[in-house]
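Hey,
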Amino acid sequence: MTNYVTVEKLTKKYGDLVAVNSLSFTVEQNEIFGFLGPNGAGKTTTLNVISTLSDYDRGSVTIAGYDLAKEPGKIKALLGIVPQDVAVYGSLTAAENIALFASLYGLRGKELTSATDEALDFVGLADERKTRAGKMSGGMRRRLNIACGIAHKPKLIIMDEPTVGVDARSRETILLSIRKLRDGGATIIYTSHYMPEVQEIADRIAIIDKGRLAAIGTEQELIGYVTDRKTIRIVTGSGAAEDIRAAVAEMANLAGVKSAKYGGERGEIRVDVSLESANISPILKTLMARDVAIKSFDEEAPDLETTFLALTGSELHAGDANGEPAAPAKK
């Protein structure tokens, strides 16, 4: 795939504090790119630079072949921003809000009307076009927030916590619309503190910590950076201890098995297998062949949350307000 965004050795300081430290990564064209980091990691600062809202000290940013330092105007024309804080006017209707923001990108007349209608339909608010934003539910305002950011059909969309505070139904509607944007040709940089959401929607994910890139890749690639195995726990019922131990010894030699141990007291067997192993039937059959009853078994596979914790030492929390300095206003 083609790189749409290229960040090379980006560095941004606030006084003596290095918020972003020689950060490099790429975002491929037409992908949903998850961008994660703990509080104070430099995530917001990096997105502010890409959004042309903040300057930087060293490095380079290229978007669609345009150099941010030399051609910021051309990059701004490509951008759509969906901020975490809902940026709509409560006294205006849904249609008026969208038309206002789309007009800032030069849309006028029939083109503006058409773009407004398409954006309303896209987020499922066509029937609410005359409803004032202040009278809408939280989920509807979130969807309107997205419509305002995408009505001008941007090629690169930056979404910062677009589903925060919404109900499950609104979240699914929003995630569906984001996938449609990707499928329609947009490239999306997506941030969220809700890890299952990132796992569900992102094609690739970057994790940054202390201003540096900690890891980048698909969900499974990131998990593979931390561990190469998952654990299967089996609680046995009736069966002689020597038969269980013999079965465990056989398990240790099965393809994909890293180790197999018998706990004894609770009759629990722990089998560590490679992440790629999908079939546990051979493991269970070794017990069944020796008439060992199986009371229960479960699989403990590592997930993105545990990977994030291993890479950063922190859990994922919403926002950077408590850790990362606010970007100074541009003059």
